[in-house]
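Bit of a strange request maybe. I'm writing a small parser for structure token strings and I need a real example to test against, not something I typed by hand. Could someone generate the tokens for this chain?
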Amino acid sequence: MFFHKKLTHTITLHPSFLGPRMREFVTKRLYKDVLGTCTGRYGYIVAIVAILEIQTGKIIPGYGSAEFQVQYSAILFKPFKNEVLDAVVDTVNKMGFFANAGPLQIFVSNALIPSDMELDMNSNPPSLHSNDQKIEKGTLVRIKIAGTRIDATNIYAIGTIKEDYLGVIE
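Reply from user aminoacidic:
Good idea to test on real output. This should exercise your parser:
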């Protein structure tokens, strides 16, 4: 699911960056530091919509660097249990397959794949196939998230295609 949220981030600038272009350096550093990262609480930061405020910097005694609090609004991606996502298959192996939905990697175990699908490790690339579907690297699939695990810097998901209207998208 996607969310729009106001966030803050602290940026430290070396004294050589303090000057007339300081605002530009703070903006570039914000994009570099937070874009594409994952916070356990909010999920993946997909895009920065706007920089709302750059507070006056505070000099760090003994170093000469300056610290700036930056408020910005961002688009966040955080998956939830029972959410249905479209993903691209990345790897097929004997345990199941991995698929990517944007920055999120989802593992679909053999136990959560319909029983009529068989693994063919001899094909190139390896694939799962049934009478009417074939899952291999690059295939677009619709997956329901069965569970997620969130840590400080990443989100892990397990998915299923064992329900109606899930599986290969044609």
